[in-house]
């Protein structure tokens, strides 16, 4: 009965079911007027729980389950706990890929969850008319607040807030941000110049992106200080999990926002648009909404770009030929005396762009991403497979990008030329399957900004410095230690030897 009931009316929180399930065995004992002793209570609980679990396990493994036709490991079909345990170790992307290698493009990764790397699923699930965000995003909202950030909004509420964000990321707005970006890139290069020798370059990319996004979201000044306080940076990295960190960050966001309002800004920064200071909307967004989105921009815009830049350095230092070619290209596009901050030349950086694309393909900063949910109404056909309503679906970029059906030859190899060469008969370069910034209505709103950052920082660093892995640095370990905690988390320093050219 319990199984049937909770299957029909899926609870949103474990609290209610826990109370109901705890009380029921006692009520049963009372109903049959059994003598109350420790052993009779224990026995009743054991029988009750075993009966309930058996019923759930048998159903989830049975051919009557609507996802019975999707292959996957037995443990995944029975429980999500295993998946949660894998995620907690940061290995979700690697495990997910191993599952796809074994079971094919559709894998049942949970009792009610499917991971798909068939290219047709990208459009069906993420594209126009695709599905809304799934249960995965709920823990990312604070139930004590009435407001949500753009990331966790759905349907019309998402479209309304996204309109404001899109204004903040239009080409006109991006032009306005150029001076902020140029200032921070110059500062980064100056600081690195002063540090020549062994440097943890990943750490400095992280400082740069935090400082830059702080400028964008809250008019700067304060975040620069925070990003150099070591205890806060790890907290920011763990933000999806740690409510304490989330509260601290929100508090911090509110303080920055109050300062931003007091001091104003010389340029139309992202805050200007998110707060709708131009008065384009019928209703101005609330202070709480803008703080939530300001904090989101720092979370979404800092770690992602920093890890992309760090992985890029790792890949080119591991591929000396690519390093020489990319450096030569930067030298020819920006000969001595030309400003490295001139973004009009970015389109000429074709090999650098290919190297960055290849980096984002092999190590997308959001490797697995969150789930989407099949809407009510019976179910949907996705790449010719029927998937029932309410199923949680992953379209994991890491596995999608490394599938030979989508990128061939050498899907696991760093081969920037795949983006440039004329396609040969056996080559596969499936652009529809390349989704480091996701796809559709809830794709990355900061994609163009991220590209400007990546190109300006990478070309400046390549032009100014000679880089190599530091002596005794175990470079292979660095890549293996990258952890998938929604946005990739860096497991250790990326030590390079920097010298001025
Ligand atoms: C290389 C850098 C970046 C990568 C790879 C990246 C990737 C992504 C991905 C995969 C998503 C979709 C997440 C989901 O479906 O849950 C996303 C969403 C988002 N990104 Fe980025 N991102 C990057 C940089 C940035 C930057 C610089 C910003 C600037 C503010 C930004 C702001 C956002 C926002 C606000 C969302 C939520 C969009 C929505 O839900 O409508 N990202 N990003």
UniProtKB/TrEMBL annotation:
User: Could you name the domain of life of the organism this protein comes from?
Assistant: Eukaryota
Q: Matching InterPro entries, A to Z?
A: Cyt_P450, Cyt_P450_E_grp-I, Cyt_P450_sf, Cytochrome_P450_monoxygenase
Recorded GO MF terms: heme binding; iron ion binding; monooxygenase activity; oxidoreductase activity, acting on paired donors, with incorporation or reduction of molecular oxygen
Which Gene3D superfamilies does this UniProt record tie to the protein?
Cytochrome P450
The positions annotated for binding heme are 444
Keywords attached to this Swiss-Prot or TrEMBL record, sorted alphabetically, are: Heme, Iron, Membrane, Metal-binding, Monooxygenase, Oxidoreductase, Transmembrane, Transmembrane helix
Q: According to its UniProt record, which cofactors does this protein need?
A: heme
Give one Pfam hit by family name: p450
Q: Where are the transmembrane segments?
A: 43-61
Concerning its family, UniProt says: Belongs to the cytochrome P450 family.
Annotated protein name in UniProt: Cytochrome P450
Q: Which organism is it from?
A: Mycena metata
């Amino acid at each position: 009965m319990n199984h049937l009931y909770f299957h029909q009316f899926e609870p949103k929180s474990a609290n209610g079911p826990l109370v109901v399930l705890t009380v029921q065995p006692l009520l049963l004992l009372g109903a049959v007027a059994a003598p109350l002793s420790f052993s009779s209570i224990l026995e009743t609980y054991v029988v009750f729980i075993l009966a309930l679990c058996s019923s759930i396990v048998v159903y989830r493994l049975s051919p009557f389950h609507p996802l019975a036709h999707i292959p996957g490991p037995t443990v995944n079909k029975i429980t999500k706990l295993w998946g949660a345990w894998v995620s907690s170790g940061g290995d979700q992307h690697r495990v997910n890929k191993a599952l796809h290698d074994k079971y094919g493009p559709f894998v049942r990764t949970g009792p009610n969850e499917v991971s798909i790397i068939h290219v047709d699923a990208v459009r069906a699930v993420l594209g126009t008319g695709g599905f809304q965000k799934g249960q995965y995003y709920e823990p990312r909202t604070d139930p004590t607040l009435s407001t949500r950030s753009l990331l966790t909004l759905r349907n019309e509420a998402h479209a309304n807030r996204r309109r404001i964000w899109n204004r903040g990321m239009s080409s006109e707005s991006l032009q306005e941000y150029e001076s902020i970006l140029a200032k921070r890139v110059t500062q980064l290069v100056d600081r690195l110049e002063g540090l020549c020798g062994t440097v943890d370059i990943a750490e400095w990319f992280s400082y740069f992106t935090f400082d830059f996004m702080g400028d964008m979201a809250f008019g700067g000044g304060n975040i620069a200080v925070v990003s150099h306080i070591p205890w806060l940076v790890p907290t920011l990295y763990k933000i999806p999990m740690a409510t304490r960190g989330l509260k601290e960050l929100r508090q911090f966001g509110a303080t920055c926002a109050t300062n931003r309002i007091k001091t104003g800004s010389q340029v139309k920064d992202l805050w200007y648009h998110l707060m709708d200071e131009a008065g384009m909307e019928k209703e101005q967004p609330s202070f709480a909404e803008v703080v939530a989105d300001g904090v989101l921009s720092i979370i979404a815009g800092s770690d992602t770009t920093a890890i992309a830049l760090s992985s890029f350095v790792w890949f080119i230092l591991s591929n000396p030929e690519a390093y020489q070619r990319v450096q030569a290209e930067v030298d020819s596009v920006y000969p001595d005396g030309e400003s490295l901050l001139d973004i009009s030349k970015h389109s000429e950086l074709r090999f650098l762009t290919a190297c960055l694309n290849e980096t984002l393909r092999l190590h997308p900063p959001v490797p697995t991403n969150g789930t989407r949910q099949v809407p009510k109404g019976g179910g949907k056909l996705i790449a010719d497979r029927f998937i029932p309503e309410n199923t949680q679906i992953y379209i994991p970029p890491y596995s999608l990008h490394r599938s030979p059906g989508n990128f061939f030859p050498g899907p696991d190899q760093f081969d920037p030329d795949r983006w440039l060469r004329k396609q040969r008969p056996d080559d596969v370069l499936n652009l529809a399957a390349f989704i480091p910034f996701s796809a559709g209505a809830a794709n990355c709103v900061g994609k163009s900004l991220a590209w400007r950052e990546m190109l300006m920082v990478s070309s400046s660093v390549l032009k100014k410095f000679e880089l190599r892995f530091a002596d005794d640095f175990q470079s292979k370990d660095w890549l293996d230690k990258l952890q998938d905690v929604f946005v990739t988390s860096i497991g250790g320093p990326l030590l390079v030897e920097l010298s001025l050219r």
